[in-house]
Amino acid sequence: MFAKSEPDDVGLPLGARSAVRTIETEAEGLMALAGLLNGDLAAPFERVLDIIQGIEGRLIVTGVGKSGHIGAKIAATFASTGTPAFFVHPAEANHGDLGMIGHDDAILAMSWSGETAELKGIVAYSRRFRIPLVAITSRPDSTLGREADEALTLPRVAEACPHGLAPTTSTTLQVALGDALAVALLERRGFTPGDFRVFHPGGQLGASLMHVGDIMHVGEAMPLVPAGTPMSEAIIVMSRMGFGCVAVVDSDGRLSGIVTDGDLRRHIEDDLLGQTVDTVMSRDPKTIEPETLTAKALDIVNSLNITALMVVRQKRPVGIVHLHDLLRIGVA
């Protein structure tokens, strides 16, 4: 358990005191939920995972009010992590949307009290057609809890609202348990960052999950010269390609080193044009592979204060990626 702070003793303004009290109250609720998952709730949780993983259709999440808003978020989390899911409002379900629920689906119904009247139609539909029904509720003896094939019981905890009325801690627990289900299924399925990218192709997240091989420059666009090339020729290649560097390869096509703008400055007084790339290049330069995520590539160029990386496979250059390439697609 965490140690509670004492905001009254540190001269905090009233707003900050309230914030600390709210967060600590909700944190206590989360710890109570974690305690249940470490005990009596562990077996039901695993059975719910079995139900969701075993369906051939989709997970239908439903709820009313705050539980409905949270249900929509949970459905989106499932969908983005490899479990087909969507939210159906129970009131709409009672007016035709029950037809969206198939025999291969499962239903996840959320209600703190377990007695939400609007859920009766969708619950009855699930029982009539033997569609698996999972409940998230604080009352296992409620109508919803009794009807469900499996009920995940949330601990009865204090709301952060000083009047004990506004759903605060209770809604936090619903979100947390939904996230726990989605993440556990993600891990069961061996869901990878590459899989995640499939569901997030747009925006900064999608860009960060692209592979370097998707954006690297290849073929004649690579600044390559063979070992022994005079620096006078290497500088021309470097200037023409515009990457601020030129890679040096041996007779087998393996990367021997790289000549950068910095190397030119360091050797400018050493009869630079009379030398070959072998005496100027930096040996064992940092490289990456085509399968490297673009976010990782950006971390590397930033940490090493460089602007380009050679992309290699079995020590042979297959491409080059520039800092500007990463920034252009929105990696950050």
In short:
This protein has 332 residues and is an alpha/beta fold. It has 15 helices and 12 strands.
**Extended strand count:** 12
Spatial ordering of strands, largest sheet = 2-1-3-4-5
Which descriptor suits the 3D outline? elongated
Distance between the termini: 36 Å
Please mark out the parts with pLDDT under 50 across 5 or more consecutive residues, or reply none.
none
Task: Quote the beta fraction.
Answer: 15-25%
* Total of helices: 15
Radius of gyration: 29 Å
Structural class: alpha/beta
Q: Give a quick account of the main beta sheet: strands, pairing sense, barrel closure.
A: 5 strands, parallel
Mean pLDDT: 90
Helix content: 40-55%
Please trace the helix and strand order, writing H or E for each element: HHEHEHEHEHEHHHHEHEEHHEEHEEH
Q: How are the SSEs placed, and which strands pair?
A:
Elements: H1 14-37, H2 42-54, E1 59-63, H3 66-80, E2 85-87, H4 90-93, E3 106-110, H5 120-128, E4 133-137, H6 143-147, E5 150-153, H7 169-189, H8 193-199, H9 203-208, H10 212-215, E6 224-226, H11 231-241, E7 245-249, E8 255-260, H12 261-266, H13 277-280, E9 282-283, E10 287-288, H14 294-304, E11 308-313, E12 316-322, H15 323-328
Parallel strand pairs: 1-2, 1-3, 3-4, 4-5, 6-7, 10-11
Antiparallel strand pairs: 7-8, 8-9, 11-12
Question: How does this structure look, described?
Answer:
By secondary structure, the chain is α/β, with parallel strands linked by helices. Strands 2-1-3-4-5 form a 5-stranded parallel sheet, with helices on both faces. A 4-stranded mixed sheet has the order 6-7-8-9. Helix 5 links the parallel strand 3 and strand 4 (133-137). The protein is built from 15 helices and 12 strands. 44% of the residues lie in helices and 16% in strands. The protein has helices at residues 14-37, 42-54, 66-80, 90-93, 120-128, 143-147, 169-189, 193-199, 203-208, 212-215, 231-241, 261-266, 277-280, 294-304, 323-328; strands spanning 59-63, 85-87, 106-110, 133-137, 150-153, 224-226, 245-249, 255-260, 282-283, 287-288, 308-313, 316-322. Residues 216-276, 281-332 form the CBS domain. Residues 48-191 form the SIS domain. One of its GO terms (biological process) is carbohydrate derivative metabolic process. It comes from Aurantimonas marianensis.
